[in-house]
Amino acid sequence: MEQYGQLLSLVVIFGAFYLLMIRPQQKRQKEHAALVASLAEGDRVVTMGGLYGTVRTIDGDRVGLEVAPGVVIEFARSAVASRLEV
Question: I need a labelling partner for 75 at 20 to 30 A (CA). Which of 11, 13, 25, 42 fits?
C-alpha cells in the first residue's frame, strides 16, 4: 500500500507541475507564434530588447523596423515581443 501512496504523490506532483508551469508556457508560445505570423507593414511593435519601431519590410524570417525617420534596422521576426495599439 505504501508504494501506491508514493506513486500517487509523484503523479500529483507531476500533474501540478504540468498545470502550473508547462501548460501556461505552451499557451504563451502559441500566442507569440500567432503574433509573429500576423505581423504586417505599418504595425507598431516592441522587440524583446525593448526597441520600439514601425514594421517597414517583412522578408521571410526578417523584419525591417523603422526606429527613427529614415533609419531601418533588421531584426529576426521572432524578436518581436508585442504589437502596440495605436
Answer: 25
In the chain, the number of structural domains is 2
User: pLDDT for 9-30, tens place per residue?
Assistant: 999 999 988 888 889 999 999 9
Confidence of residue 58 (pLDDT cuts 50, 70, 90): very high
| 81 and 71 belong to one structural domain | yes
Same domain, 74 and 47: yes
pLDDT digits (tens, 9 = 90+) for 64-85: 999 999 999 999 999 999 999 8
Boundaries of domain holding 66: 40-86
| 46 shares its domain with 63 | yes
